[in-house]
Amino acid sequence: MQSKILIFITIFIANFCYAEEQDIELQNELHFLRLENFLNLELDIASTKAETSLQSPSTVTVIDRQMLEEYNFASISTAVETLAGIQVYRTAFKQQVTTIRGVLQDHYANKVLVMINNIPSWHAITGEGNLDRLSIHDVERIEVLRGPASVIYGSQAYSGAVNIILRKDTKQLHVDIGTKDRNSIGANYRYNLKDKLSIFTAANKEHGQRYQDNFTDETGINGNIVDYYDSLNATAALDYQDHSLLFNVFRNDEGNYEGSTQKFSAGAGNNHDVDGILLGYTYSHNWSQYFYSKIKLFYDRNERNFSRSADDDIRANVLGQRIGGNISNIFTWDDKLQFELGTDYEIRTSKEYKNIQQSTNTILAENNLSDRSVYEYSGYAQIDWKPLAKWRILIGSRLTKSETFGENISSRGTIVYSIDAKNTIKFIAGQSFRTPSLFELYFITPTKSVFGTESLEPETADTFEIGYQHINGYFYIQTLAYYSIYKNKIHRIKDDVILDDGAVAKNVSVYTNGQEFSAKGVELELKYLNPKVANIFLNFAYISGDDGDKLSGTEHYNFKYVPDYTASIGVYKSFQDVDISMIGNYSSTANSHQESVDSYFNLSFNFAYQHKYKSWQLKHVLSIQNLTDTKVSIPEYVRRGELNELPLVGSERGVFYSLNVGF
């Protein structure tokens, strides 16, 4: 490892010594506008119309392109997990599981909606989204909404939403090499023709770090597992006047501790493939100064393929698709009053769920999920009223009708009080829900050991927040307190099931709704943006949840596995053409089913040098990830068997050199 580090440093110093000088006066002038530009960003995630963070009726945070450049985040996941109230977990089976405000999800059952340019994507059968279906190099900004968002987005924005916006102006090639076999390559390009036509294309391939881990499975067999995360993706977007098209295709190859179960004989340690295709079309038009419309259509295909045998000859393939769209209309009465009406429709289809023997191409079992479809449609209305110059009141509701559970009504209300141009107070009350996935409703294993439940009710949440935003000189502060009540969280328990023929399957796994539970928390975001000193961010979250959802006869409940305190700090300083940045992440102790998982604080460091070579803009970055080699683990909260905790892939110590070439 030391020899590799020496090679990287030698390459880095060589480039530093022979580089041409560049004029950076303009860059420094732009740094002085850093806070103003950040606050004036118009965000899409909090409403159907773009608004700044101070104007937004929801709790919104943004990571803009400049921040992504300053801290050289390796992925979208590593950037998002620095935000207050957000953690990117994993299970033994699935990596990159986004969690907001401690509401855990299992392998599936997504609680956080993931979107690209406002087009939503998640697996039609199992429900989860994928943050890292794009390269961080292709991202203009990441918008995150914390709290209920069902009035805006429907059933999958249960605890929040993440909207990934593609690069606006870029012509770039990037390569990366590092320890533990890490390497990547990619390129992106945007062509702009005045204000009429804009075309974006990108392609990326990443071979992640490899980590050897010793693992004892549920039968007591011990062995080594290679843990990793590889990705391959391509993206294209076209904007022409009022029309926008989006195309994204990806394949993620993940190491895991589980096949069909946490046993080597059931495929534990073999790879897990996740891939998908997303097509989106958006038409938006101002018909007059009083009437604005937006239409979205999408096709979303997601597939999962995982091992079910030690020799990897038997694998399961899970293929689902979503087809749907929505229409939103905003009617402006005058400067003080707006009405919004919209409707959504979606068909979710489970195309196949099969166990296949690869050597003979034989279907060994076909689950009853194959060729099953359900529909869901909804309508919503909002009133946005500004009775006085400093006051804004927004009230809205969505009525959803589902083939699976019937009806749901979710509402929200927000009062925004602008004390002055630099101080805002927000009072937010909102509801959200999550439709049971096709997997939770209908899944039955061929061995009759796991059963979905068709009578499941949707998960619901009621949240109350008070927030404060403040700007003063180089400082920006957003702080809030919230209280949330969660109902009908879907669990998997042991119970008896009566089969169609009247026989009883005893002590099998069954999906069921849990009891009501609640949580309260505090979140703080602080930014200090002063190019003469440094750019600094500090994000902090505290959460305390009760055990109202504790399963009978167990010590298992959601907030048992959630740390009380999490925090992230970042410092960035530019010395003309040399940049230095540091990021630290902290998590307090968390409980698990056997013993507690230790707290951790890890520190990462970046040293960047930028210069021009002919017409090219070159940026060299030397990164040391987890400088102190701190163990970063999270509780294993799904099966609660032999494994007590799981390492987070990508959090181990590593050294990387990257080169970005701008044309």
Secondary structure layout plus pairing:
Elements: H1 2-18, H2 25-32, H3 34-39, E1 59-64, H4 65-71, H5 76-80, E2 86-89, E3 97-100, E4 112-116, E5 119-121, E6 139-146, H6 150-153, E7 160-166, E8 171-178, E9 183-193, E10 197-207, E11 211-216, E12 222-227, E13 229-240, E14 243-254, E15 272-288, E16 291-307, E17 314-334, E18 337-357, E19 362-366, E20 372-388, E21 391-402, E22 406-420, E23 423-434, H7 438-442, E24 450-451, E25 459-472, E26 475-487, E27 490-498, E28 504-513, E29 517-530, E30 534-545, E31 565-575, E32 578-587, E33 600-613, E34 616-625, E35 633-635, E36 645-647, E37 654-662
Parallel strand pairs: 4-7, 24-28
Antiparallel strand pairs: 1-6, 2-3, 4-5, 6-7, 8-9, 8-37, 9-10, 10-13, 11-12, 13-14, 14-15, 15-16, 16-17, 17-18, 18-19, 18-20, 20-21, 21-22, 22-23, 23-25, 25-26, 26-29, 27-28, 29-30, 30-31, 31-32, 32-33, 33-34, 34-37, 35-36
Describe the structure.
The protein is mainly β and 663 residues long. The chain is built from seven helices and 37 strands. It has a single domain, classed as Beta Barrel (Maltoporin, Chain A), CATH 2.40.170. Strand 4 (112-116) and strand 5 form a beta hairpin. The model is unreliable at 1-32 (pLDDT under 50).
List the defining traits of the structure above.
663 residues; mainly beta; Maltoporin, Chain A; 22-stranded antiparallel barrel; 7 helices
The CATH superfamily is TonB-dependent receptor, beta-barrel domain
Largest sheet: 22 strands, antiparallel, barrel
Unreliable stretches: 1-32
Shape: globular
* Rounded mean pLDDT score: 89
What is the helix tally?
A: 7
**CATH classification class:** Mainly Beta
Tell me the domain tally.
Answer: 1
Round the Cα radius of gyration to an integer and report it: 25 Å
- Residues in helix, %: under 10%
The CATH architecture assignment turns out to be Beta Barrel
Number of strands: 37
Broad structural category: mainly beta
Q: For the record, give the distance between the C-alpha atoms at the N and C termini, rounded to a whole number.
A: 33 Å
Quaternary organization? single chain
CATH topology call: Maltoporin, Chain A
Proportion of residues in extended strands: over 45%
